[in-house]
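Ticket #4471: complex job returned nothing on first submit. Input attached below:
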Amino acid sequence: MNIGMSTPDYSHLSSKDFHDVYEPAEDTFLLLDALEKDVEHLHSSRPCICVEIGPGSGIVITFLAQLLKSMAFFLGVDTNPKAATSTRRTADQNGVHVEAVTSDLLSALQPRLEGSIDVLIFNPPYVVTPSEEVGSSSIASSWAGGKDGREVLDRLLPQVSKLLSPKGSFYLLVIKENKPDDIRRLLAKQNLTSQVLLERRAGPENLSVMKFYRDPTLCS
Ligand SMILES: C[S@@+](CC[C@H](N)C(=O)[O-])C[C@H]1O[C@@H](n2cnc3c(N)ncnc32)[C@H](O)[C@@H]1O
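Support reply: We reran it on our side without changes. The output follows.
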């Protein structure tokens, strides 16, 4: 369902900020559209804890906070400290509260978050690149995904079911080169069902937003 939400204001971020922080692009906007499309599910599941890994500018987690208009806790974790700062600034600019911390995936926070994340979002560094480019200290770490564009994502995938609450959903942005069917099979082994929420071609990239969740009809 499209409810005509506008994109969060990020006019406070300049080209100087985008020298160090991922600038919203087609992938970002597809993720916003997918969250808006899934608004009925998001509202009805009454999420308490919402986490975005790699928020960059912060517009996705800010959009979710606006969409839910709830008392949920919103957290962004990014390896790039400047992305954490931009995320806080974007939330402030749009009148919502988002906590933002610098962290490699969920690292030290994981034990406290296990089994409690109701909404987990990740638009990972997904571009196929040489492995040496993954995790650099430059802006390239925003997109450099190494082999199959999966090297960062593959460190998160084994943890997804453990992190999600019983009603939790995981929203993931992928491109065709990331082998979405393989991701689907890996998460099916954790008893997570998948759905493609939206797909779009942007230049050379075939982007999709996938959603993973526990299907209550399959629970014993
Ligand atoms: C493709 S950008 C997406 C940014 C934003 N979510 C968007 O959609 O515009 C990927 C983001 O993931 C962050 N990132 C890369 N590796 C990470 C890691 N190991 N842990 C947390 N964040 C990471 C990058 O710094 C960057 O902000």
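The chain has one domain: 20-218. Closing as resolved unless it happens again.
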